[in-house]
Design goal:
about 120 residues, alpha+beta, Glutaredoxin, two-stranded parallel sheet, two-stranded antiparallel ribbon, 6 strands, about 20% strand, globular
Length: about 120
Protein backbone atom coordinates (compact mmCIF):
# COMPACT_ATOMS: atom_id res chain seq x y z
CA UNK A 1 0.00 0.00 0.00
CA UNK A 2 2.88 2.38 0.71
CA UNK A 3 4.26 1.84 -2.80
CA UNK A 4 0.81 2.29 -4.25
CA UNK A 5 0.53 5.61 -2.42
CA UNK A 6 3.84 6.73 -3.95
CA UNK A 7 2.58 5.79 -7.41
CA UNK A 8 -0.69 7.63 -6.76
CA UNK A 9 1.20 10.76 -5.74
CA UNK A 10 3.21 10.59 -8.99
CA UNK A 11 -0.09 10.72 -10.86
CA UNK A 12 -0.74 14.23 -9.58
CA UNK A 13 -3.21 15.87 -11.94
CA UNK A 14 -4.83 12.69 -13.27
CA UNK A 15 -6.00 11.00 -10.09
CA UNK A 16 -9.63 12.01 -10.79
CA UNK A 17 -9.59 9.15 -13.30
CA UNK A 18 -7.98 6.65 -10.91
CA UNK A 19 -9.55 4.69 -8.07
CA UNK A 20 -7.36 2.72 -5.70
CA UNK A 21 -9.14 -0.27 -4.17
CA UNK A 22 -7.74 -2.48 -1.42
CA UNK A 23 -9.41 -5.90 -1.39
CA UNK A 24 -8.99 -7.90 1.81
CA UNK A 25 -8.59 -11.66 1.65
CA UNK A 26 -9.11 -11.97 5.41
CA UNK A 27 -12.54 -10.53 6.20
CA UNK A 28 -12.63 -12.41 9.51
CA UNK A 29 -9.83 -10.25 10.90
CA UNK A 30 -10.31 -7.20 8.70
CA UNK A 31 -13.47 -5.74 10.21
CA UNK A 32 -15.14 -2.74 8.60
CA UNK A 33 -13.68 -0.46 11.26
CA UNK A 34 -10.18 -1.88 10.86
CA UNK A 35 -10.38 -1.69 7.06
CA UNK A 36 -11.56 1.90 7.20
CA UNK A 37 -8.72 2.95 9.49
CA UNK A 38 -6.08 0.97 7.58
CA UNK A 39 -7.00 2.09 4.09
CA UNK A 40 -7.72 5.65 5.21
CA UNK A 41 -4.29 5.90 6.82
CA UNK A 42 -2.76 5.72 3.34
CA UNK A 43 -5.06 8.14 1.52
CA UNK A 44 -8.57 9.46 2.03
CA UNK A 45 -9.48 8.61 -1.59
CA UNK A 46 -8.52 4.93 -1.30
CA UNK A 47 -11.37 2.43 -0.97
CA UNK A 48 -11.43 -0.79 1.02
CA UNK A 49 -13.52 -3.76 -0.09
CA UNK A 50 -14.49 -6.56 2.26
CA UNK A 51 -16.65 -9.50 1.18
CA UNK A 52 -17.74 -11.71 4.06
CA UNK A 53 -19.04 -14.52 1.87
CA UNK A 54 -16.13 -16.80 0.96
CA UNK A 55 -17.72 -17.85 -2.34
CA UNK A 56 -18.08 -14.21 -3.41
CA UNK A 57 -14.50 -13.47 -2.40
CA UNK A 58 -13.18 -16.50 -4.29
CA UNK A 59 -15.19 -15.49 -7.37
CA UNK A 60 -13.52 -12.07 -7.40
CA UNK A 61 -10.08 -13.59 -6.88
CA UNK A 62 -10.56 -16.09 -9.70
CA UNK A 63 -11.46 -13.27 -12.13
CA UNK A 64 -7.90 -12.03 -11.70
CA UNK A 65 -6.11 -15.36 -11.38
CA UNK A 66 -5.40 -14.55 -7.73
CA UNK A 67 -5.53 -16.91 -4.78
CA UNK A 68 -6.05 -16.74 -1.03
CA UNK A 69 -5.67 -19.90 1.02
CA UNK A 70 -6.36 -20.05 4.73
CA UNK A 71 -3.84 -22.19 6.57
CA UNK A 72 -4.25 -23.22 10.20
CA UNK A 73 -1.09 -22.74 12.27
CA UNK A 74 -0.10 -23.52 15.82
CA UNK A 75 0.32 -19.96 17.08
CA UNK A 76 -1.59 -17.19 18.79
CA UNK A 77 -2.84 -16.09 15.37
CA UNK A 78 -4.58 -19.41 14.81
CA UNK A 79 -4.32 -19.15 11.04
CA UNK A 80 -2.50 -17.42 8.20
CA UNK A 81 -3.75 -16.46 4.77
CA UNK A 82 -1.34 -17.17 1.94
CA UNK A 83 -2.29 -14.92 -0.96
CA UNK A 84 -1.32 -13.32 -4.23
CA UNK A 85 0.55 -10.07 -3.66
CA UNK A 86 0.11 -8.52 -7.10
CA UNK A 87 -1.48 -5.20 -7.94
CA UNK A 88 -4.07 -5.21 -10.69
CA UNK A 89 -4.89 -2.34 -13.04
CA UNK A 90 -8.49 -2.62 -14.20
CA UNK A 91 -10.32 -0.33 -16.61
CA UNK A 92 -13.79 1.12 -16.01
CA UNK A 93 -15.40 -1.87 -17.71
CA UNK A 94 -13.67 -4.32 -15.36
CA UNK A 95 -11.09 -5.52 -17.89
CA UNK A 96 -7.67 -6.42 -16.53
CA UNK A 97 -5.18 -4.01 -18.12
CA UNK A 98 -2.01 -4.94 -16.25
CA UNK A 99 -0.73 -6.99 -13.35
CA UNK A 100 2.16 -5.67 -11.30
CA UNK A 101 4.28 -8.14 -9.39
CA UNK A 102 5.05 -7.45 -5.75
CA UNK A 103 7.98 -5.07 -5.44
CA UNK A 104 7.58 -3.25 -8.76
CA UNK A 105 8.75 0.35 -8.48
CA UNK A 106 5.99 2.94 -7.90
CA UNK A 107 7.29 4.96 -10.85
CA UNK A 108 6.63 1.98 -13.14
CA UNK A 109 3.05 1.72 -11.88
CA UNK A 110 2.51 5.46 -12.35
CA UNK A 111 3.99 5.33 -15.85
CA UNK A 112 1.77 2.45 -16.94
CA UNK A 113 -1.34 4.10 -15.50
CA UNK A 114 -0.51 7.31 -17.39
CA UNK A 115 -0.07 5.35 -20.64
CA UNK A 116 -3.52 3.78 -20.25
CA UNK A 117 -5.15 7.08 -19.31
CA UNK A 118 -3.60 8.88 -22.27
CA UNK A 119 -4.81 5.98 -24.42
Amino acid sequence: MADLLLAYRELDGVTDDVTVVFFTVDPERDTLDLMSRYVGAFHEDFIGVRLEDQADMQAVLSQFGAVAIRREVDSALGYLVDHTTSLFMVDQQGNLMNRFAYGVEPSVIAHDVRVVLEG
